[in-house]
Amino acid sequence: MNTATLKIDIQSYWHPGTGRGSGFHLDAVTHTGPDGLPRLPGRTLKGLLRDAVYRAEQWGWPNIPSGSTEALFGPLGRDGQPTQPGLLRVSDATLPEKIVAYLATDDGKPLVSGLYREHFSTAINVRTGVAAGRSLRGMQVVIPLVLEALVTEIPGVAAVPDWQTRLATVFPLVAAVGAQRARGFGRAHLRWKEG
Q1: Cβ–Cβ under 8 Å, residues 4 and 17
Q2: At residue 85, does pLDDT exceed 60?
């Protein structure tokens, strides 16, 4: 079974959404693991990679032959859900093990809260220039970090020997991760970890 480590270098505030809020204060809180540390769900990351491969395949990019999307990620049914598995499984993207270990120590625990910020926005009435009523929204965001995820071949699925090359080809198409990507959040660079 072949495995590669994907590095996600997030260069702006980002929001791995949960769909949950924190009462009156924040409308959206971030996805965290049991350790309280931020993580980007593997399902989200896999979807971004699938979309990038699909677009490159449709545009006829070199190194992305026809059928790459289904081979790597499986075919989709009419409801948009995978009907059978593709070759690849993607883990949650987390902080590197050494950093996680340090943040679990007595010296590191006080630093965890520094990974998060609060971001507030409101709608402005274009005619008056005044904030629209009841439009203030607050969300928890995470500071720029470098995360790592494991991309692993699923046993028993038809092999694609050059899958790492195919994914590396489309990494530039994944310009951002998390929620609010179209508004400048989560700008990211993806690459394979060497060694």
Answers
A1: no
A2: yes
